[in-house]
């Protein structure tokens, strides 16, 4: 039986797969995987529930080149590897009949969402929106004045205070805090859930911090803890939502299909 606090923690360095939260609430333990396909075992949507698949975009071309910088809500392009990762994520989701495919407006997410849509159409599923539904609220965290800066330039202390939601260090020039991000993300998630019928599944392709916001809410985690959730590039997270009680059940987190691709570079974001 999957409990309310089930967490499937992400792919750790060099590994692919899905993970559940250990008894101490910190360490990951392997989730149940299909022996044949090496994918998470996923039961049918329970009665009275809706399902969301949350996909992070693939690897990007960091605008700092060999000097990895924070880019946040900047519209940076996917790398060739990132495009392949997104294609594989879309291929995995082709086994599910999705009612809606939603996306952040940023091009790196839109590419992945279109892969999902194309696979749905090829399988003959009926995507009721006919195309990708764009939500501004699923846009990545705005790093403001920190865009174009490295971790070292921002400073470890400043980043630690930011992760702990010390809003006094929120960067200027339109920068957002985690609480501000989570508020708009959850509002958009709720709109997508309203569009999704009971017993159906939808998908959203977005970003690291956006997926963290939704996952931390499903786990009942405080916003100050969400920076510790690891979400691999082009990975898929699955959460079920009860339409009656509001209960959220995490089915798996950060599953990345094994398809022989090299490991992505995932530094500052």
> Tally the helices: what do you get?
6
Shape: globular
Strand order of the largest sheet: 5-4-6-3-7-8
**What portion of residues belong to β-strands?**
15-25%
User: How many beta-strand elements?
Assistant: 8
Classify the helix fraction into a percent range. Answer: 25-40%
**Pattern of helices and strands:** EEEHEHEHHHEHEE
Profile the largest sheet. Answer: 6 strands, mixed
What would the average pLDDT be, to the nearest integer? 88
State the low-pLDDT regions, or none: 1-30
Structure description:
The protein has helices at 80-93, 107-122, 151-154, 156-163, 178-195, 208-218; strands spanning 19-21, 28-30, 49-56, 98-103, 133-134, 201-206, 236-242, 248-255. The model is unreliable at 1-30 (pLDDT under 50). By secondary structure, it is of the alpha/beta class.
Gist?
With about 270 residues, the chain is of the alpha/beta class. About 25% of the residues lie in helices and about 15% in strands.
Which tags fit this structure?
disordered N terminus; 6-stranded mixed beta sheet; 26% helix; 6 helices; alpha/beta; 269 residues; two-stranded antiparallel sheet; globular; single chain
Please give the structural blueprint.
Blueprint: E1 19-21, E2 28-30, E3 49-56, H1 80-93, E4 98-103, H2 107-122, E5 133-134, H3 151-154, H4 156-163, H5 178-195, E6 201-206, H6 208-218, E7 236-242, E8 248-255
Parallel strand pairs: 3-6, 4-5, 4-6
Antiparallel strand pairs: 1-2, 3-7, 7-8
């Amino acid at each position: 039986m999957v409990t309310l606090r089930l967490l499937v923690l992400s792919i750790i360095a060099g590994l692919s797969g899905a993970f559940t939260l250990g008894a101490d609430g910190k360490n990951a333990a392997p989730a149940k995987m299909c022996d044949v396909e090496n994918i998470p075992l996923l039961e049918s949507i329970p009665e009275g529930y809706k399902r969301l698949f949350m996909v992070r975009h693939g690897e990007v071309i960091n605008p700092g080149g060999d000097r990895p910088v924070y880019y946040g809500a900047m519209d940076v392009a996917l790398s060739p590897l990132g495009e392949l990762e997104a294609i594989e994520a879309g291929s995995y989701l082709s086994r599910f009949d999705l009612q809606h495919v939603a996306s952040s407006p940023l091009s790196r997410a839109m590419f992945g969402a279109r892969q999902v849509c194309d696979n749905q159409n090829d399988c003959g599923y009926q995507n009721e929106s006919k195309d990708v539904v764009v939500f501004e609220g699923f846009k990545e965290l705005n790093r403001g004045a920190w865009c174009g800066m490295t971790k070292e330039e921002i400073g470890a202390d400043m980043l630690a205070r930011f992760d702990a939601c010390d809003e006094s260090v929120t960067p200027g020039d339109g920068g957002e805090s985690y609480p501000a991000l989570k508020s708009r993300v959850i509002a958009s998630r709720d709109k997508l859930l309203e569009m999704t019928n009971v017993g159906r599944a939808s998908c959203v392709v977005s970003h690291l911090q956006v997926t963290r916001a939704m996952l931390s809410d499903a786990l009942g985690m405080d916003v100050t803890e969400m920076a510790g959730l690891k979400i691999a590039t082009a990975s898929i997270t699955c959460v079920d939502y009860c339409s009656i009680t509001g209960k959220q059940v995490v089915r798996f987190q950060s599953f990345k299909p094994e398809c022989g691709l090299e490991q992505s570079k995932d530094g500052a974001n």
